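Entry 14. Structure prediction run on the chain below.
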Amino acid sequence: KDAGPGRQGILGWSQLSYLGEFLAGKAFTNTIGPVRQGGNAFEPRNAMLLARGCALLLPNYRGSLGYGDDFVKALCGKAGSLDVEDCAELTSLALSENQGDLDGTRVCVFGGSHGGFLTAWLAGHPTHRKLFKAAVLWNPVIDIGGMLGTTDIPEWCAFEALGAAGWRFGDGGGVWPLSANEMVALHAASPISVVHNVECAALLVLGAADRRVPPANGRQWAAALEARGHPCEVHDYPGEGHALGGAEATAHVTVTIVNWICTQLYSRVSPP
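Output returned:
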């Protein structure tokens, strides 16, 4: 799908039945941002959701791979705005073009890592949050400023949120510690800044040994929701890292996410 000027490289597609819509904003990160695109390769969770009657939209927002260097670098210094708008516009476009098939009252957003960052933003966005009934966050980036000193990819934080392409610890790159203005900018780019707007149901899955996005990020989001009287469901996986790649963790998180999404969209585990 084409979401307008500057978004020609963004793709979305739906498969099988359209009883609900499932938005997968998944893009794992390296030192300069998303390094994965939404594609049509086999993915167990997606296959299980399709089998349950969900439609899928896999957005390649600006900053994703596959459309050239300029497409990737377009997100530099604009994380939390450009990528969020792309995903929201694609969701609205999919709904408007398929009104006879998609139920706009049953939309779930799901993402991991940078995709979890987008999920938290969309769930708390002043306007876009109204699109979503539920949200699933997998090791999400929630507070970029708080994550900067503990992640194994601090350069990602500086690149995506501050536009500092050459920033790194030491080696003459960047300035450490950051200035007060830079910390304010990191907070403004982070979804923790809009957590007070979250109204949808939410599921959070965290790897307790994650060095890429330390679990304190997700726990901070859960604590903020709890303080507002709007708790989310949290699953913490001891010893698991960013990918939740252990056999038992993979099996449990896959079944948990699929069943939770279907329960939210259908009000029961199996579709009508």
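The longest helix spans residues 247-266.
Filed with the rest of this week's runs.
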